[in-house]
Specification:
Helix content: under 10%
CATH architecture of the largest domain: Sandwich
Strand order of the largest sheet: 7-8-4-10-11
Order of helices and strands: EEEEEEEEEEEEEHEEEEEEEEEEE
Shape: elongated
């Protein structure tokens, strides 16, 4: 690998003709542009052609291959790596595959090169020249800073994205042209915004679990009606803690804990085990040797979530007391 620095704007291209004698006798060399190291992203979509032996090259300053390629961690593939001056390059052989692929890193940006070879033919291109996806030829780009045009709110049971209407106007798009990975999930007009509701499960959302966190991923598109041309493409990700410790101090009322970016968890008391007769008045007296039923509940559209009650204790008063009765310890 070579690092090039310049005080003036330059374009760098690379002539590729590396030996792949184990696959083909020879292939035509090809040029690819080399994007600057600062103009990178954390998510790409790319295509390969099934008549070629295709390869993916990832260049990043990430010290470990914490990438997801087509929903698999990178070590799922037969990967080779080279390193120089703080940069790392991973080459992934994809074989003869035809279609669309996705590559994602949870926190660090990177650049990709896609290329394919066959006997005396080849193709290759790079991605990462811009912070947004390029528009189709002859289509005017929206003006202004398009890096973060809207507002993403990660809620307990899904997400909402507010895209300003002036962005759609500049791109010559309508609200009905904005949709998620599932084209049936479309935006709706909300004042000066196009509001896109993004469920955690559904509408093409992907779920990744890594390093004690859950990532809900989808993409917002602005597509010209009746075509496949996209003028807007905005990958969105909600990061939630997979395991979280909450202190729910019992007071003479039902406590609901609600916080942006966290799951909503409630604690309620019931008189019997059928959980239909909610305790609503306090203080609530319980005879000795009788039962008090407690319900913990997480409010979310993700049906796979679970709650573990790690510790539960009782004491004679609301204040600190030396006389504490441990009901549950360490789960």
């Amino acid at each position: 690998m070579v690092i090039i620095s310049s005080t003036q704007p330059i374009m760098v291209t690379y002539l590729t003709h590396e030996s792949k004698s184990n696959l083909v006798a020879g292939y035509d060399p090809f040029f690819t542009t080399v994007p600057p190291s600062l103009a990178t992203r954390r998510f790409y979509k790319f295509t390969t052609q099934g008549t070629y032996y295709s390869f993916l090259m990832i260049v990043s300053q990430a010290p470990s291959p914490a990438f997801y390629l087509d929903q698999h961690q990178l070590n799922y593939y037969n990967v080779s790596m080279k390193a120089l001056n703080g940069f790392y390059a991973w080459e992934v052989p994809l074989g003869k595959t035809d279609g669309e692929h996705e590559i994602y890193h949870q926190s660090l940006p990177f650049t990709i090169y896609v290329y394919g070879i066959e006997n005396y033919v080849s193709y290759g291109y790079s991605m990462g020249q811009e912070t947004i996806y390029p528009d189709a030829p002859s289509i005017p780009k929206p003006s202004g800073n398009f890096t973060s045009p809207g507002i993403l709110n990660c809620l307990s049971d899904g997400a909402e994205y507010q895209l300003p209407m002036h962005v759609l106007s500049e791109a010559k798009l309508d609200v009905r042209d904005v949709h998620l990975e599932d084209p049936q999930c479309r935006a709706e007009l909300d004042g000066d915004f196009a509001l896109i509701k993004i469920p955690f499960t559904g509408c093409g959302s992907d779920i990744l679990d890594e390093d004690g966190k859950t990532y809900y991923i989808n993409t917002i598109y602005g597509t010209i009606t009746g075509t496949s041309i996209r003028r807007i493409e905005i990958p969105v990700t909600c990061k939630m803690k997979s395991k979280e410790t909450l202190d729910l101090s019992f007071q003479p009322k039902v406590t609901d804990v609600v916080s942006l970016g966290h799951y909503n968890v409630s604690l309620k008391l019931y008189k019997t085990g059928n959980f239909t007769d909610l305790v609503t008045t306090y203080p609530h007296e319980v005879d000795l040797h009788s039962s008090l039923h407690v319900e913990f509940k997480v409010e979310s559209g993700d049906a796979h979530l679970q709650i573990l009650v790690e510790k539960c204790k009782a004491s004679p008063s609301l204040g600190e007391s030396e006389q504490i009765y441990n009901l549950i310890q360490q789960g």
